[in-house]
Write a structure and sequence with these properties.
The protein is built from eight helices and no strands. The chain has 166 residues and is mostly helical. Helix 1 runs antiparallel to helix 2, helix 1 crosses helix 3 and helix 6 crosses helix 8.
Length: 166
C-alpha cells in the first residue's frame, strides 16, 4: 500500500468520531451519520490515489459531505434506488397479519408450557443445546454428565415437544 494511502486511512481512523459528529449535526440524524461514515470509509479504502492529498482530514470530510448531499437530494426528489429482486425478497414484510401473529404467539406459549413440564435435567440440556447453541460434548462437560446422557435427554425433550406441538 502506498504511503499516501496509508496516511489517508490513518487520517480517517483518527477523525472517525469527529466526522460522525459532524455528519450528525449536518443531517440531524445519528443513524444517517453512521451510514455516511461507513460509506466514507468504503470510498476512502477503495480509492486509488493519483496525486498527493495535502489535507487528508479535509478530503475525508468533503467525501462525507458530498455523500450526504447526494443522499439528501435523492430523498428530496423522491428518487428511489432499484434493488435486485432477490435482495427485495429477503426483506421482511413490515405488515403483520394479526391472525398469523396470534397463532405464533399461541404456539410460543405452548412451547414454553411444554418446556416447563420437562424434567429439570431434560429442560436444562435442551436449553443449553437449542437456545445457547452448545454441542453435546460441551453440555456434557458443563453439566458433568456423559455425552450419551445428553443425547438421551435431548431425544426425550424432542419427543415430548413433537407430541405436544402436533
Amino acid at each position: 500500500m502506498s504511503q499516501d494511502r496509508e496516511h489517508l486511512l490513518a487520517a480517517f481512523l483518527e477523525n472517525r468520531e469527529a466526522l460522525q459528529a459532524y455528519l450528525a449535526r449536518q443531517f440531524g440524524n445519528v443513524g444517517v451519520a453512521e451510514d455516511l461514515t461507513q460509506e466514507t470509509w468504503l470510498r476512502v479504502a477503495s480509492r486509488t490515489l493519483g496525486a498527493h492529498i495535502g489535507n487528508p482530514r479535509a478530503y475525508i470530510f468533503r467525501i462525507a459531505r458530498n455523500l450526504g448531499m447526494d443522499l439528501y437530494r435523492r430523498q428530496s426528489l423522491g428518487i428511489e434506488l432499484q434493488l435486485d429482486p432477490l435482495a427485495v425478497e429477503q426483506i421482511a414484510d413490515a405488515r403483520i397479519d394479526p391472525a398469523h401473529s396470534l397463532e405464533q404467539r399461541r404456539e410460543l406459549e405452548r412451547l414454553v408450557q411444554v418446556l416447563d413440564e420437562l424434567p429439570p435435567r431434560c429442560r436444562e440440556v435442551f436449553i443449553l443445546c437449542r437456545v445457547e447453541g452448545l454441542d453435546h460434548q460441551q453440555i456434557a462437560e458443563r453439566l458433568n454428565i456423559s455425552k450419551s446422557t445428553v443425547v438421551s435427554q435431548m431425544v426425550k425433550a424432542m419427543q415430548r415437544l413433537e407430541r405436544a406441538m402436533r
